[in-house]
Amino acid sequence: MPVRTPPARASRRALTALGVYALLLVGAAVTLLPFAFSVMTAFTTPTQFAQEGAVSLPNPATLGNFGELLGGAFGFGRSLGVTLAMTAVLLVGQLCFSIMAAYAFARIEFPGRSILFWTYLSSLMVPAVVLVIPLYLMMVQLGLRNTFWGLVLPFMFGSPYAVFLLREYFRGIPRDLVDAARIDGAGHFRIMTGIVVPLSRPIIVTLALITVVTAWNSFLWPLVVTTGKTWGVITVATASLQSQYTSNWTLVMAATTLALVPLVIVFLIFQKHIVRSITITGFK
């Protein structure tokens, strides 16, 4: 006969579940409400915002803030283009160089491989802010200050986190597949592009998303290495806009919304790949 749960225990479980969901709802509200207020304010006229504040729905909704931001003298459209180009270059560079380095550490035997890998990985212990001044001096010496390549060059050749993530995933690929390809005459480049990379698509997509979010939200390095509006990125442009137009919060929130929308779209497109990369723990 089936074992029945006592009513008291069932009640405790129901209350526990209710409490957990209540905490999750509170956490979600605290996280999402600022974004909701930001979007509502972006579609609100300055007059309505001054009279009713950010908690009121736009009545009527307006696109005037976005038009003023993109069509005015703020240079925000150029900042969007610079940020998009920077993100694309960093994405391609990070993926290409990180994949090659991770494959070498995972599948190619050479003297000192482990020592070199763990030495490289130990650079994760160094705070990123410590490297800002040395990198800045290098860019000045190379004549790349306030240029596009000054923005991307220090960060396009892979990163310790990306190499570690890909290396661990590559090591999980069955060696029999690699050995079979090598018997058929395939070299390392053919094995990497024809076997390892296709089998590692979930983790590569996840790494691509992390790279896009990191590059899109980068602030400190673009702020240091660039001046003016020529090569300013969207984060620096938004901060500058806020410092200059603190009384016009509808314009500032329009800039914040424009910066937020691309990341939301990217996440919605690739969220299944992220879940899959977390749940996969091996290969059959």
UniProtKB/TrEMBL annotation:
Subcellular location: Cell membrane
Chain ranges of the ABC transmembrane type-1 domain: 80-270
Keywords of the record: Cell membrane, Membrane, Transmembrane, Transmembrane helix, Transport
Superkingdom, taxonomy of origin: Bacteria
Membrane topology listed for this record: Multi-pass membrane protein
Keyword Transmembrane carried by entry: yes
Record keyword Transmembrane present: yes
Stretches that traverse the bilayer: 14-37, 80-103, 115-136, 148-170, 191-216, 249-270
Family listed: Belongs to the binding-protein-dependent transport system permease family.
Name of the protein this chain belongs to: Carbohydrate ABC transporter permease
Natural source organism: Paramicrobacterium chengjingii
